[in-house]
Amino acid sequence: MLRKLLLVLLVAGLTACSSGGGEELPAGPDLMKKAAAAMRSVKSAAFSIATDGKPNVPVKKADGRLTAQGDADGTITLEVFGSLQEITFALIGDTVHFKGPTGGFQKLTRRELAQLYDPSLILDPAKGIAQLLESASDPLVQAEEGGAYRVATGFSEQTLGTLVPGVTQPVNGTVWVDKATSRLTKVELPLQGGSVSVTLADYDAPVTITPPPSAG
To answer: What number of H helices and E strands is found in the chain?
Structure first.
């Protein structure tokens, strides 16, 4: 009887040690608020958007740089009438310099661009990533992965529209928040027909957006 009791105590002690040795994960709502505040102080970032499968969104791929002032440059691949068109752009102030696969650069106003997609809003403190994180519903921190917290959470179509235009319903997605800086590193969104992932990197690196050499 004594031997059995000692074995039970030993197993209980080992279980307690193994379960108590891991890092305690932060509460989801607290982490989202901290991440939103961190994103509002960002001065610049590199962004990348990629799709898997055939999600019903016009932006299929994008890579570029952003500044907190609203300037941006890079490339965007859009689906237009069933075909993919890659567009090179430089958004400076109220002017958008853009060109397709052929021909030279043309100009749009920022307001005209916004009817399609305005990537500069990603860092907008009132409409971009910060607002997306702050308004996230039922965030649950699932694990720590590679220096970031993985968080399952819900988003409304209104807040997602700034990041991924064409989303017409709420989405339960996953975000990764850097442990050291509380900044967002990645978003994954399962959509009908496929998924969209958005990654952010190179925070606060020096960025100067200039007109293309051939722009008039």
So the answer is: 5, 11
The amino acid at residue 172 is: N
Burial (Cβ within 10 Å: 0-12, 13-18, ≥19) of residue 170: middle
Interval 43-100: pLDDT, tens: 999 999 999 999 999 999 999 999 999 999 999 999 888 889 999 999 999 999 999 8
Q: Which fold has domain 24-201?
A: outer membrane lipoprotein receptor (LolB), chain A (2.50.20)
Residues 144, 179: contact at Cβ < 8 Å? yes
- Which residue ranges make up each domain of the chain? 24-201
Strand order in the sheet with 137-145: 106-109, 95-99, 83-92, 72-80, 59-67, 44-53, 194-201, 184-191, 171-178, 148-155, 137-145
C-alpha pair distances (Å), 160 with each of 70, 173, 207: 18, 11, 26
The whole-angstrom distance between residue 28's C-alpha and the CA centroid of its chain comes to 17
CA distance 162 to 134: 14
**Residue range 152-201, pLDDT digits in tens:** 999 999 999 888 888 989 999 999 999 999 999 999 999 999 999 999 99
Q: Is 179 helix (H, G, I), strand (E, B) or coil?
A: coil
How far, in Å, CA of 202 to CA of 147, rounded? 16
